[in-house]
Specification:
This protein has three domains: 216 residues, Rossmann fold (3-Layer(aba) Sandwich); 91 residues, Orthogonal Bundle (Tyrosyl-Transfer RNA Synthetase); 80 residues, Structural Genomics Hypothetical 15.5 Kd Protein In mrcA-pckA Intergenic Region, Chain A (Roll). It contains 21 helices and 15 strands. Strand 7 and strand 8 form a beta hairpin. The protein is elongated.
Length: 428
């Protein structure tokens, strides 16, 4: 059998977990439409969605047609796969809003032009809204036995604690999506994470029983962190693609700060660089771990793709402000949101604007009004030793007077003691 370009690409990128027999022959035979389903319960995708997105990206790059199904109907039910409890259901208006937001994000990855293999976005609510319950259980439900459904891991894993009929029926609903897309759009392939294998193969079985046709399944491994915890979350929760939920700076920092082991595991999955370049950068990290070559490559590529080159540049500048030297001028150029992003979590103090309007000696400001130092004498002692900075500029005058001209964004002062201790002073 001739090797298939898509399958080989997914293999070396560690994006192939399982596939049904005959898929490679189908892909070699003709341009094949394949789809992935997305959960519309949030108005943004997050980096946990990147694996199925990359499956669609590689499908399209191999000359096939990607279809993104956003589950307006299934989002009103809830997929039990990988879940331990039933989730809150959404209204149609909420789901429609989320669909539009997610479509804008998918357009950053997929070509939705009118080319033969241009991507399409579909909403399964469009075909479920007219399908009555009695018609569904008569025309679809009769083709799949309860025993078949009970054997799926997504069901077996929930039986101990119980699951509603609503969730139990989910695999039938997702299976019918595949049938509809097969009939109306000629879709022959469904892709997803390995936890979706049961739902996807229910779809291929429904197609066989309801139409006599043949369809295929392909899954990618579930991505986890090296410590076994869930990929896609930071200390603050999900890492979102929406800049209003996760700023470009925080997004950049997430990738920059992953462990070497995670970076090596994820680089091939999320980068679109070629194999030779990826292997070169991987070897650079192995030979010189301090370079963090893979982390830098991932952070730069993904921040540019999901946000913009300008956002990447700002994120890099912001990082250099925090960790670099002689960055006082750069600090002044940061807008307020980026400034707060950088120094999120550092101690804060509030002072009155009138204090600066009159002028306040730095020893008094750093001790009496902020408690950043235990005493004025300690401030002066550290100034003489070169250990005190204001707005990232070294203070060399023990009698320096701070006034409103020193404010960042006309609202903040950044006090620094030594290399790593900061206090963000908010002026009100």
């Amino acid at each position: 059998m001739t090797k298939n370009a898509l399958i080989e690409e997914l293999k070396w990128r560690n994006l192939l977990h399982d596939q049904t027999p005959g898929l490679e022959e189908q892909l070699n035979k003709e341009m094949t439409s394949g789809y992935v389903g997305f959960d519309p319960t949030a108005d943004s995708l997050h980096i946990g969605n990147l694996v199925p997105i990359m499956l669609l990206v590689h499908l399209q790059r191999a000359g096939h047609k990607p279809v993104a199904l956003v589950g307006g109907a299934t989002g009103m039910v809830g997929d039990p796969s990988g879940k331990t409890q039933e989730r809150q259901l959404l209204s149609i208006d909420d789901i429609n809003h989320n669909l539009e937001c997610q479509k804008a994000q998918l357009q950053k990855f997929l070509d939705f032009s009118d080319k033969p293999n241009g991507a399409e976005l579909v909403n399964n609510y469009e075909w479920f809204k007219e399908l009555g319950f009695l018609n569904f259980i008569r025309d679809v439900g009769k083709h799949i036995s309860v025993n078949y459904m009970m054997a799926k891991d997504s069901v077996k894993n929930r039986l101990e604690n119980g699951m509603s009929f609503t969730e139990f029926s989910y695999q039938l609903i997702q299976g019918y999506d595949f049938v509809h897309l097969y009939r109306e759009f000629g879709v022959r392939l469904q892709m997803g994470g390995s936890d979706q294998w049961g739902n996807i193969t229910t779809g291929t079985e429904l197609i066989r029983r309801m139409t006599g046709g043949e369809a295929y399944a392909l899954t990618a491994p579930l991505v986890k962190k090296a410590d076994g915890t869930k990929f896609g979350k930071s200390e603050g929760g999900n890492v979102w693609l929406d800049r209003n939920k996760t700023s470009p700076y925080k997004f950049y920092q997430f990738w920059l700060n992953v462990s070497d082991e995670d970076a090596l595991n994820w680089f091939r999955i999320f980068s679109l660089r070629g194999k030779d370049e990826i292997e070169r950068i991987e070897n650079e990290l192995r030979e010189a771990p301090h370079s963090r070559a893979v982390q830098h490559a991932l952070a730069e590529e993904l921040t540019t793709r999901i946000h913009s080159a300008d956002d990447l540049e700002q994120a890099k500048n912001a990082s250099s402000v925090l960790f670099g030297k002689n960055t006082s001028e750069q600090l002044k150029t940061l807008d307020e949101s980026l400034l707060l992003d950088i120094f999120e979590g550092v101690p804060q103090a509030e002072i009155s604007r009138s204090l600066l309007e009159a002028g306040c000696p730095i020893a008094e400001l750093y001790s009496d009004h902020t408690n950043f130092f235990p005493s004025r004498g300690e401030v002066r002692k550290m100034v003489k030793g070169g250990g005190v900075s204001l707005n990232k500029a070294k203070v060399d005058d023990t009698e320096l007077v701070v006034n409103t001209a020193d404010l960042l964004q006309n609202k903040y002062l950044l006090a620094q003691r030594g290399k790593k201790d900061y206090c963000l002073i908010i002026v009100k």
